[in-house]
Amino acid sequence: MHRGPLRAGEWVRLTDAKGRKHNFELVPGKRFFSNKGHLDHDDLIGRDEGFTVTSSVGGEYLVFRPLLSEFVVSMPRGAAVVYPKDAAQIVALADIFPGAHVVEAGVGSGALTCSLIRAVGPYGSVRSFERREEFADVAHKNVTQFFGTEPPSWELTIGDLAEELPASGIRCDRLILDMLAPWECVDAAANALRPGGILCAYVATTTQLSRFVETVRVHGGFTEPQAWESLVRDWHVEGLAVRPGHKMIGHTAFLVTARRLAAGERPPRKTRRPAPGAYGPDYTGPRPADAPAAVPDEPVEPVEHAGSDTPEA
User: What predicted TM-score, i.e. pTM, was given to this entire model?
Assistant: First the structure.
């Protein structure tokens, strides 16, 4: 479906001379309208993509099928989408391979789902869990729109992964968590993942990052969690004028991965001591067994200064 002449029912992406983009579905007999006039869909259907077309008032457009990275940032949204830079990191560093059995929660608007379905190929499977029905409906429409039909390797379940996954008896190779409280699903993920499988979380804030990492550590059935983020900056290149661009995709989310250990196995004990204060009295999250116990701060006695009747702390 992503090669050959353009067909009715496919989506195309038009780009004008200023770089403005327009996405729409090709429907016989319909017209596309913009401030540069109109185009007949029939003039696009049947042609090989990568051509320039002229509108009724002389506006020029370059016509291609939208790439997945272009589709996901312009598709209808129920929830925020996983940006292409993060989806690429998940596919690569969570090692999503052809034939893999992947579980994800939640599905959001279906952006990451499309990348996962592509990565596992026709012999793998993607099982998506989503708590909110309205998000699931948007994701189903977006995934079906991009692939042209509902992929046979994909199954969407409305419900809480922490409850639905253990009841299903599913075993998987990779498990992706894109939700507000991924630490609530660590036990269910550990029971579903095969030994050597990878758990990956996509979280937006540092507090979520800390809570999830420490929960995985305390569980004990995973390797040491690895956390990172990616930043993307474009460059302007024109002759000798080569400089960083003015646009940048900065922080979108943190990614965390950890590998499932075999049943009954524990990771080697860390020899590096935590940073001073890492698990101090202000820390209230999960605490590793070998972490120092929190010691409350001692109260500060007031000190009277000479020449003053007012005690100061």
Answer: 0.85
